[in-house]
Amino acid sequence: MITQIFPKDFQRYLSLPVLGPLMDAFAGWLQDRCYTWRSTRFEMRIAARVCGYLKRRGIRTVVDLSEQHLQACYRLFRRKFGNEAGSVRVLETFLFEQGLVQRSTARQPTRADVHLNAFAAHLQDVRGYAPTTIRQQVDVASEFLAWLNFESEPHQLSSLSMEDIEGFSRRLGKRLGRVAMQKSISTMRNFLRFLAAGGIVAPGLDSKIDRPRVYRQEKLPRALPWPTVQAFLRSINHDVDIGKRDYAMFSLMATYGLRACDVVALTLDDIQWRAGSIRICQAKTGKPLELPLTDEVGSAIYDYLKNVPRYGTFRQLFLRLKAPGGILKSTAVSEAFQTWARRSQLDIPFKGAHCLRHSYALNLLRHGLPLKTIGDLLGHRSPESTATYLRLDIEDLREVALPMPTVTKLRKERRS
To answer: Which of 259, 304, 358, 360 is catalytic?
Structure first.
């Protein structure tokens, strides 16, 4: 592999100190993770510089190499060569995955870790929260303990006062809106109740925190006109690999109302080509749903799978096209939506791809589908979640509006 990357200088790389015998395997590893020819050359040049650094530190073979040496090298590169420090991390990942360098033993949990781990276990075992919700709540609790400087001053929890809590709330309020602030305050209440149950803080502090008032259904669902959705799909460039992938993703969202997490969770086995169906497992309900595979969506997926190279042995349908290769995250779907929405120059005021799901629901509603059917397709647990789309059907709402009373009618009613 290295002979293809450096046809003339490959011997120099193979004879490098410490990592020379591994450079060919490193080149193949980079290729397997979608690194381009140019990026592979760059990563290997930085690896050669790392070899020089290790040699100057008295390291002769990879057996003598440890995680501490790589961490020190990373800090040096970050201080002197900021743009190249990330390549040290790439090399470090390769060495870890190949088992050539062992990770150091896990550090001893800090005081904060003890409370945070216990809080996470409580949320999972007692409250039954989803893993994503647990991570979000633990992050808020961790930020709170860091704000208190709990590691250096552990007495801060036992002497916790409302002034401390209000100070942290003001800090959150500087960067969060009302909805996000309400969720963070709810997390703080959960955390304080948990600590009070263990006798760590005084009881009753959770009930003294005021949350921002958010009215139910105060905002309309973020839906686009259906012609805008169709124009958005047409604006995606199918001539490039990333356009083929993204067009297939957004076609799925616009045709079946999928969430971003549902799209990235699809696997090759979920596409039943012979049966002409697609199998979807709703992320929130966990219920499987089998729907017919439309010709348009099937053609988009076929074009993507046939013409876009796949790296690795991943079974997920949609993969990263930039190095390092791997499966997509939900955030990548929103980032792709923002990119194509900006290029389309359409009037799309929303930044998240979730608006395609709302647009799909509203389109079904305007075509006369029952709410129960729409709710089943969207994976809603409660009819109330589906009923919120009724507020978007303006034309039907006009038919049930009461006539506006006039001054003449009011006078006649008073006389009678």
So the answer is: 259
Number of folded domains that form the chain:
3
CATH, residue 203: 1.10.150.130
One of 41, 222, 238, 354 is an active-site residue; which one?
354
Is 357 designated active site? yes
346-357 confidence digits (pLDDT tens)? 988 888 888 898
Q: Which residues pair with 291 in a beta bridge?
A: 278
Residue pLDDT, tens place only, 225-250: 889 999 999 999 989 999 999 999 99
Q: What is the pLDDT of residue 33?
A: 84
Provide the 3-class DSSP secondary structure of residue 270.
helix
**Whether residue 354 lies in the annotated active site:** yes
Q: Is the pLDDT assigned to residue 398 strictly greater than 90?
A: no
**What is the model's pTM?**
0.71
Q: Name the residue range of residue 308's domain.
A: 226-397
| DSSP label of 110 | -
Beta strands across the sheet bearing 271-272: 271-272, 277-281, 288-292
pLDDT exceeds cutoff 80 at 409? no
* 260 has a pLDDT exceeding 80: yes
What b/e sequence results for 132-152 when a residue is b if at least 16 CB atoms lie within 10 Å of its CB, and e otherwise?
A: eebeebbebbbebbeebebee
| Cα angle 124-129-132, degrees, rounded to a multiple of 5 | 105
Residue 380 is among the residues annotated as catalytic for this protein: yes
